[in-house]
Amino acid sequence: MRFLKVLPLFFFLLLGCKGEEGTEGTVNVGFTDDASTKQGTVLKLSIEGIYLSEDGTNWVTVWEGSKEISLDVGSATEVYISEEGIDVKTGTYLYLKIDLGGITLSLPTGELELPQTDIELTLSISTGVEVNPGESVNLLVDMNSEKWLDVEGGNITGDIQNSITVSVVNP
After folding, report:
1. Cα separation, 47 vs 31, whole angstroms
2. What are the Cα distances from residue 68, in Å, to 31, 48, 93, 102?
3. For an engineered disulfide with 59, which of 16, 51, 95, 130 has Cβ 3.0 to 4.6 Å away?
């Protein structure tokens, strides 16, 4: 009889010791610029941070640091921020924020650094992305530089914020 009194306490303690297990999924963020027809140009992005948000105000860090990635403009090549996915708190995220330290163009005639620096892009994920415990998800950011970049003048001339798209792709 005494055993039956202690049994519920044992299960309560067992569940309480479980901790934070199962509260993270894996996210990887990749970049491409395949929509452009300005081939022969390389778009170099200096990335300083990538974040996800469920509501556009509270942000979860996906990645922070300093990394330059190079995108062949007009190519379907995808370049990911890390070789492996990054553990992120589970949830349904509707926004992706990217902090860029700068953008450089590598043209056949040489390199051209755009005058705009410290660009913060807050992008809507149209379908949202669900990060589930123990599962992986890839986000692909298409820079669509043809819509906002003047290659000849080396300037941002269009609406960079609303030209870039984010999609969920299978890992």
Report:
1. 11
2. 12, 9, 25, 9
3. 51
Q: Does residue 15 surpass a pLDDT of 60?
A: no
For the chain, helix, strand, coil in percent to 5 are: 15, 55, 30
Q: Tell whether pTM > 0.70.
A: yes
Closest CA to 36 of 113, 142, 166: 142
Q: What is the pLDDT of residues 58-104, one digit of tens each?
A: 999 999 999 999 998 878 889 999 988 999 999 999 999 999 999 88
What are the counts of helices (DSSP H) followed by strands (DSSP E) for the chain?
A: 2, 11
- On whether the CB atoms of residues 123 and 97 are closer than 8 A, the answer is yes
Amino acid residing at 4: L
